[in-house]
Amino acid sequence: MTISASPQSAIPPEDLAALAEELDISLPPTDLWSDEPPLESDFHRDQIDLLIRLLKRYWADRTDFYVTGNLTIYYSEDKIITRNFRGPDFFVVLDTELKERKSWVVWAEDGKYPNVIVEILSKSTAAVDKGAKKELYQNTFRTPEYFWLDPNTLELSGFRLIGGTYQPIEPTDGKLWSEQLGLYLGIAHQRLRFFTPDGALILSAEEAEEQERQRAERLAAKLWELGIDPSQV
C-alpha cells in the first residue's frame, strides 16, 4: 500500500512519514531529478527563461513562491515509472518556500500543485497541450489558471478554473488578467510578457538599464541646451 498526494492534501512531510511508519506502509520517493526532454526551439528556451527572470525580478522582495520552467512535476508513483507526462513549460506555485529544487514532487510539497501554468505550443505538442494536458490540469492538478501561447501567431489563450471547469479568460485591451499573479499577460516585443495592473510593461533588468541610460542621455542633452555642463551638476 502507498500514500499518494491529492490536490486537497496538505500533510507535512514529517507527519506523512510518521503516519506511514505507524501504518507500516511505504511512501514514494521524494528526492527525484527532473526528467524532461530538450526544448523544441530557441523560442521556447528564450521565452521560458524570460518569464522566469521577469517574475523573479518583479517579486524580488517575496519568498513565498516558486517559479520555474521545463521541470518535471511528480504527482503519482505511476509518473515515476512510466515517464508518460512532460512537465509544463512554465509554472508558478504560490504560498511555498522559495528555494532551488530538482523537480516538483507533489507529495513532498504539502500536496501543492501549480497555481499558474503556461505551455508554449509546438507542432508536436499542440494537440496534447490543448487536450490531454488541459484535462489533466483541470481535473487532477486543479490549477486555477492555464495559458498557452502559439509561437507562430503569438496568439495567447487563457483559462480560469470556475466550478471545476476551465472557462476562457476574456481579454482586456489585448491582455489576459491573471488573478493568481495579480498581473496581466500579453504580447510585447514578439514575446509573452507580464504587465502591471495598470497596464505597464514589466521590464527585464537589461531593459530597465537601457531605459535609465536613455533617460540620462535626454537629461544631459537638455542641460547642454540650457548651457549647463551635465558633469558639473
Automatic annotation (TrEMBL):
Keywords: Endonuclease, Hydrolase, Nuclease. CDD domains: DUF820-like. GO terms for molecular function: endonuclease activity. InterPro entries: Nuclease_put_TT1808, Restrct_endonuc-II-like, Uma2. Residues 36-186 form the Putative restriction endonuclease domain. Gene3D superfamilies: tt1808, chain A. Pfam families: Uma2. This is Uma2 family endonuclease. It comes from Thermoleptolyngbya sichuanensis A183.
